[in-house]
Amino acid sequence: MSMRSEPPRQTYAGHSRPNTRRAFLRGAACAAAAAASGQAWLVQATPQTTHDSHQTAVGAALRSSLSPDYRLEIAEIEWELSPRKKVRTAAYNGQVPGQLLRLREGVPTSIQIVNRLDHAEIVHWHGQWIAPDVDGSMEEGAPMIAPGGQTDIAFTPRPSGMHWYHTHAMANRSLKHGLYTGQFGPLYVEPRTNPGRYDGEHFLLLHDWEPYYSPSDDGSLMVQYVSSSINGRLLGHDAPIQVRQGQQILFHIVNASATEAHWLTLPSHQFQVLALDGRPVPTPARTQALRLGPAERISAAVIMDSPGVWILGEPRENFRDAGMGTVIEYAGRSGTPQFTPPNRLEWDYRVFADRVAAIQKPDATIPLVFASRFEGHGALDRWTINGKSYPESGPFLLHEGLRHRLLFDNRSVDDHPIHLHRHAFELVSIRGAALSGIQKDVVVVEAGTVVEADLIANNPGNTLFHCHQQDHMDSGFMALFRYA
């Protein structure tokens, strides 16, 4: 399966911690993007009639006479991670990842979703500022799709940048539902103006497979995996990404894992980070390694200035051995792919922020304290926000047009990828250090730390807030934001 794309292309105007049993960064090939934009996985949108509103979903009855721009069929398949390893999983349109949906900002799109599974499903349009009834969260009021049923939705994509779509169904104790499956795919929204040019563009989706429960040091359960992939293939079982010396290659990377943070590095090269969660960063900066919590996205450019055959992959050996990697091959070069991990793994959002932090005064402050309760040996921990688990947690009230300061106070021993639907927030403080200019919809709040983020309430409607780690979300780590 190919996940490469050629023009049109887009331009954009932490530190390491020990691997503990609870740490979110704990340690446990990519169907390399091939060929050009005319490939089968890239379905071009058909012309659309004018929409009156960028927010309102268009009912199926109003579009019954029109064919959808895209059709997603959810069904169980047997997927080949490598010739010797196959998995049965639910997926979109018979492939992992699902097809690239390449939309244009401000141009309405319609999507038909068909559920061939024996249980209800739902599709979330992660990173899109759209109405609650099409966002794909039943907590916000979007309907589940019954077994054998279908739904037709329409929305106007915004904002531009790298996003993704995925199941938002609860897995609970099952490791064959939710994001433990292959129900995920890339969603790229082209900007209205000023598209840029790169010599190559590649979409890389990271995922972990064959999950199982393992007891932690205190006896509660944690999820681990047997294998890991990029674009649904294990390292060494995909076609290499072909490059030429001097090219500038743009990588769009999504961490589609249910629970694991991942690092990526390309020996002898550097990434220039251009966008986080699809939003351009104020200060594009170079780094040897990228860190992505579950659901985070990074768009980064690499200048191909070190000819050879290299592994682009997880610097942690256990994940790389499990399959998390792909091969970069320069023209005219051959041989065994080389990999040398960096001496240190460092990541700090502040590197990409405004050079001088702009200090904003919030109109309201919402404290959000994250904690867990031990539920006993052989059980999952229970997660709470301000002492309560969903659905008792919240709701938290927003006032339209006002700046709300969200205080993410993580009093647990786990890191958490915190996600807010239908909005972006601006990071304003990490570990007490001020910053500004970075807009995200997922932020990793490290264990024992406080992150402050400002949310301007500009998209009325029910809005879900949760940890994007599947087992945490299933165990109560969610709340609703509502507009007053």
What does this structure look like?
4% of the residues lie in helices and 42% in strands. It is built from four helices and 34 strands. The strands form eight sheets. Strands 1, 12, 13, 15, 17, 18 and 20 form a seven-stranded mixed beta sheet that branches. Strands 23, 24, 26, 28, 29, 30 and 32 form a seven-stranded mixed beta sheet that branches. Strands 25-34-33-27-31 form a five-stranded mixed beta sheet. It is globular. The relative contact order is 0.15.
Shape, per Cα inertia axes: globular
User: By helix and strand content, what is the structural category?
Assistant: mainly beta
Give the integer mean of the pLDDT values.
88
* Radius of gyration over C-alpha positions, nearest whole angstrom: 21 Å
Helix content: under 10%
Fold topology:
Blueprint: E1 4-5, E2 9-10, H1 60-63, E3 70-82, E4 85-92, E5 101-104, E6 109-115, E7 123-126, H2 132-135, E8 150-155, E9 161-167, E10 184-190, E11 195-196, E12 200-215, E13 221-230, E14 241-243, E15 248-255, E16 262-265, E17 271-276, E18 279-287, E19 289-292, E20 297-303, E21 309-313, H3 317-321, E22 325-330, E23 364-373, E24 382-385, E25 396-398, E26 403-410, E27 416-420, E28 425-430, E29 433-434, E30 439-440, E31 442-445, E32 450-456, E33 463-467, H4 470-474, E34 478-483
Parallel strand pairs: 3-6, 5-10, 12-15, 14-22, 23-26, 25-34
Antiparallel strand pairs: 1-12, 2-11, 3-4, 6-8, 7-9, 9-10, 12-13, 15-20, 16-19, 17-18, 17-20, 21-22, 23-24, 26-32, 27-31, 27-33, 28-29, 28-30, 28-32, 33-34
